[in-house]
């Protein structure tokens, strides 16, 4: 199947909107998936997008709104009244509803919630909005299928038919006791393959994974990925069943986390996309460049200390090698830190720190040795004195070892202190390794060449 | 809930294995999730792990095996006979079975498949093993619940009870015609909320997404993420239903893809983990460092062309700024390429190339201007001549613009030629930008300072 929206289709829709051919618009969009319609609206202008949102029925538009690009959704929502938004929200799952309302201004939030006709729904949304960002509570939905252990299979199926209408996908049926405490689960499959007179208490599976409403969303993602769960119930301190989190939300969490780490490694501090404005991109990129600038000025400062050797042609060539040394220090540091950051994320940085230190030193010695030999060979072709190319090779090896150790241990230390180790990748490690590298390079060269 | 395995638990298991207290081992592990047992086995030695695998029943061990670290699984499988592996495989879903058999040597593959007692299963696994790696076929499982449009709801439920036993999770029920062609779908919920005498033909949803068996797995991941699907049917050229892909496999694809891009950006060429051997880590890291070395030697070559200005103290200081210039070129290049690579992955690099060029130039001008002012200010404190610090500032701005353009367009061009743009991040872009940067820096300085 193709997931591309054709340019012709978009132009056709634009023309139809211009001519207000409502019937044809509805016909054209009715068979399209809401995610596709959202993509069409993303490229239309605001008036056109709003026109279509107001034209389609709220069952469809509620799903489209959730798929829209955040910036565009914000603008479309500004064009809708509190009552219209309340109608959209009433068609959504509670987690999506709470997320969308949270994007509005505080004053509008209240008006929208007050305009929701179903009071239970309004209460659910209010509850969801109280949970902290990046907590299990902020991810969960209130919709779930819940049965009491005392029910029979037949009674259960009857009740489920009613409950399931509000739940788009039934992953698991949660079994609770009289106090609404989670005691087990059942799959729909178990239920339809059981005899109708059996009691739930006799057939449910008591071994049920759950997360606490205040758990971190990344922790929830790890649990669900590890145990291959498609939904997980959320409970409070008393094990009361509060809601459930589904795998599609976790896919989003994993993707965001991966994107964030990737951007940090590349020196981009906040979530930006290729299509964001120049100002947003500048805000995300400039701070790291300024860090790099100060790092570079630090290197200038170090080299100024060796200014006098420039007059001596025997030593002056050392300055030609500073970008090479800085690049090696940077590359090695980023490699080491990236492996550690990924290892920490996947929980496979185990064993003692001393063993890890030995390993990094060993690895750097091998890499440094191979690269050092290459430098000596290159030096031969570049007609450098052996003494001089050996100096470059040996100081480069030392720089590689130190860079690897910095790249390895800075993220580990940050992680131990509860700081996201991903910030220690990219420009941060490159810049500090540049300075250390240049310092060490001249220091060792001075010892070896004796200036 | 906690997903940590305690050290005490592992030591207890080790002691039990040593004393061959089989009953206690079974009791201790019976209530544990297979993913947790796999984690325990990952840290035990090979004999201990094999002992436990042979002790537990194959229903449990088949799941444990799939969760084991690949290196450890390989070794454990070497200790099992073809017949024992066949028994494990028979308990797995077909996609997992095919994946695990594919890890064996070719000669063992055949023996294991021949040892599978269920001939249909053996045929399914053989079929799955014919699909290319990273294709939809390689991800799909043969297990699914399939009904014919001519059946009634009641008949359907009867048949499903039988089929569902082999399917661990029923996401969708696929509706086929007499030729086994996919014509629609039904949810289990739809089925239990329908009247038992209704015909499937009257209640099924004909709008069903599917992927072709030869589609790329990343494409499948995009489709499933976009349309929030938890399972998708896989068809051949004639729309014959061949299997289904579930969201848990897609989570793995997304994770692998993100990890790979991250590692490429960090200059690590193959999938390695923090706990891999020094040799594996060297193989993954050294090639990029060699690339960096040659880049650095390229800079040496460029600077040698300006050797004579070292004698002039007015110009010699330029050499102090080469690491700064190289760092700026590298950082800007990585930022630009990372944003583009992510944008390409998320399909949001749209619009004309010319507009993108304008945007990158605009962005670089802003960043370069701010950084240039900082350089002039720093120059004031470092007692540089204004003329000199202006030269540094302006050449740095030019370097930033060129670096941003290279970082933006190299991945776009690679992508257009069908090459993974992610290889253009990290050391590749840093190294080429280092050389361009140094070249441009001296070229502009020469023009401005007139040497």
UniProtKB/TrEMBL annotation, chains A, B:
CDD domains: CBS_pair_Mg_transporter (cd04606). Keywords: CBS domain, Cell membrane, Magnesium, Membrane, Metal-binding, Transmembrane, Transmembrane helix, Transport. Residues 140-203, 204-260 form the CBS domain. GO terms for molecular function: magnesium ion transmembrane transporter activity; metal ion binding. It is a multi-pass membrane protein. InterPro entries: CBS_dom, CBS_dom_sf, Mg_transptr_MgtE_intracell_dom, MgtE_N_sf, MgtE_transporter, SLC41_membr_dom, SLC41_membr_dom_sf. Gene3D superfamilies: CBS-domain, MgtE N-terminal domain-like, SLC41 divalent cation transporters, integral membrane domain. It holds the Pfam family MgtE. It is found in: Cell membrane; Membrane. Homodimer. Acts as a magnesium transporter. This is Magnesium transporter MgtE. It comes from Urechidicola croceus.
